[in-house]
Amino acid sequence: MRVPTVVVGGSVAGVRTVQALRARGYEEDIVLVDQEPGPPYDKPALSKEILTGAAAEPPALAELGDLAVDHRPGLAATGLDLAARRLVTGSGSIPFGRLVIATGSRPRRLPALEGRAGVHYLRTRADAASLRAEFTRRPRVVVVGGGFIGGEVASSARALGLDVTIVEAAPRLLTRLMPLEVSDRVARLHRDHGVRVLCGRSVTGCFGRDRVETVELGDGTRLDADVVVAGIGTTPATGWLSGSGLVLDDGVRCRPDLSADGADGVWAIGDCARWFDVASSRPVRLEHWTAAREQAAFVAGAFTGDGATTAFTTTGYVWSDQHGVRIQHVGRCDAATTTSSSPAGDGRGLLFVHHDGDEPVGATAFDAPRDLLAFRRRLTSATAPITERTRG
């Protein structure tokens, strides 16, 4: 009996792993275990086209029938027996020769919002459908969290003409991701499109009879709200691995080649993986669509022997569409970097470049895709000795 390769998780990291393996000629049996029902779908549309009604369904990630994969939708992984090399699920166990963990992450819950109808978190197709149904009733919307997801939800709600307020506990939007110059521009973009932006305010409670009617802030302010959407970050979806022997530390702790500490023949990728990044000499966990695809391709190359086996690294790329503006970021920006800005080559957009000393290490673009792409190519070229090894 042939023991299959098992991939756990049907989002971009898991599905891309299957695609990359087959594209490289991998002939072993593959089982794809997916907690969500139905065919796998691409999640970026959930906070945009699905909420505005521009699309009824998110786009499919792949045509699984072309990949010779045993897809098992609606099946949750509940445990892992490393000694027996079996994945435990809600309907029995599945043997594996190799295992790829790609279970992603879950929205971080805000206790102050629990217990009321009208409070939403956005992660799945069902979440988006529920929120879209609420938006058709023209509610007053409070978005808790000023990151990319919160910004996209606010943008979609305003596109429908809804009353929208963003509440962010940090002193400014995108504090963890962007420097002051960029976050100020994002805040101005929201305000220019009619979104109220309240920073340095925390949510302490919500009130109403059967459903939320008001949201209370730490300073005593009360905001009228018919719908509240919380986008305050995520936690790795690794609870099912508790007691398995894998090291769980803000995700599955992995070696530089994405193999899991504490096990042989097990890898973790995507939002649930925290690997040691040789480029920055520190552990990293990324929640980026592009990084998930890159990691999937890297692991596939390791399986087939025609890719790298040493270390995965990435320049880090993320994008967001808000109020008709495409925001793109590549590389890094942190407390050690300084930022300069210049008009885009076409005169319409704006490019922020982040420097570490005299060295450009990252960039953020507003409607400047060509400039960002050119910078990304230069940045990738600068790290070519590692990048080429890791991308196979």
From TrEMBL:
Residue span, Reductase C-terminal domain: 317-384
Keywords assigned by UniProt, alphabetized: FAD, Flavoprotein, Oxidoreductase
Pfam families per the record?
A: Pyr_redox_2, Reductase_C
Q: Record's Gene3D superfamilies?
A: 3.30.390.30, FAD/NAD(P)-binding domain (3.50.50.60)
InterPro entries in UniProt: FAD-oxidoreductase/Apoptosis (IPR050446), FAD/NAD-bd_sf (IPR036188), FAD/NAD-binding_dom (IPR023753), FAD/NAD-linked_Rdtase_dimer_sf (IPR016156), Reductase_C (IPR028202)
Q: Give a Gene Ontology cellular component term annotated to this protein.
A: cytoplasm
Q: Which cofactor does it need?
A: FAD
Task: Determine if Flavoprotein is one of this entry's keywords.
Answer: yes
- Care to name a GO molecular-function term for this sequence? oxidoreductase activity, acting on NAD(P)H
Q: Which domain of life is it from?
A: Bacteria
Protein name (record): NAD(P)/FAD-dependent oxidoreductase
Organism, scientific name: Amycolatopsis pithecellobii
